[in-house]
Amino acid sequence: MVPIDNEVLLTIIVPLFNEEGNLPRLAKELSGYLSLSPHKAKVLFVNDGSTDNSRELVERLCAENQAFTFIHLKRNSGLSSALKAGIDQVITPYLGYIDADLQTSPMDFDLLMTHIADFELVTGIRVSRKDGIIKRISSRIANAIRRSVTHDGMSDTGCPLKIFHTSTIQRIPFFKGMHRFLPALVLLDGGRVKQIPVRHFERIAGKSNFHLWNRLLGPAADLIAFGWMRSRYIRYEIAGRG
Fold this sequence. Notes:
The protein is of the alpha/beta class. It has a single domain, classed as Spore Coat Polysaccharide Biosynthesis Protein SpsA, Chain A (Alpha-Beta Complex), CATH 3.90.550.10. It is built from nine helices and seven strands. It has helices spanning 23-36, 54-64, 79-87, 109-113, 133-150, 166-169, 182-188, 212-217, 220-232, and strands at residues 10-16, 41-47, 68-72, 94-98, 121-126, 161-165, 193-198. The two termini are 24 Å apart.
C-alpha cells in the first residue's frame, strides 16, 4: 500500500521535454500558486529525457524551493510514460497535472479543487483557445473521433489541467498513448468525472511536440487498444463476506 502524505493535500505533476525557455516562468507561476492557494501543495517535475538545459534548470529550481522535487527519466519515453513515472511517486490524497508550456494557469487548480471531493477526476475545458487554426481544427476532430469510441462525453480530453484522486489514477491501467483517454479510463473504473472551464494562453517559449501525425493519425492504434481494453475490463462487486 502506498503511504499517504496527510500534511500536503495535492501533488502537481509537471512532465517536461526540452522546456528550458519556459521553466523560469513556470517555476514563478507555480510558486505563486503554492503561496496563495488555500490547499497545501507541492510540485513534482518529471524530466522526460530532455536534451537541452532543462535538467540543470530543474535541479537548480528545486534547490531553491523546498516544495519542488524532480525525477529525471533515463531517456525520452513520451508523455504517457512520464505521467506514469510521476504518478507512481505520489503519496498525497490528490494529484494534479499541468503541462510545462503554461498554456493553462496553475491558479485554475483551485477551480478544480472545489469539486474534487465529489469526483474522482476534475478536468478543465479550455475556453477561448489561443492555439493556431490547424491545431484547433485537428484537436476538434481528434476529440470527436475519441468520443465516438470512448463515449465519455468529454468536450476537451486533451486539456492539460486535471486533478485526480491519487488512489484512482494509480489504479487504472497505463500504456503508451493512454494519456489521451484519462477521463474514459476513470469512467471505465467506475469513477465520476466533472469538466470545468479554464483559461487558455498562447505558448510563449519552446516548441509543441504535437502535430497532425500524433494528433490524428498516430492515435488510431491507441483507440483500437482502448476499445479492446474496454471490452475485456474486469468489473465486480462483493455482495457479502464471511
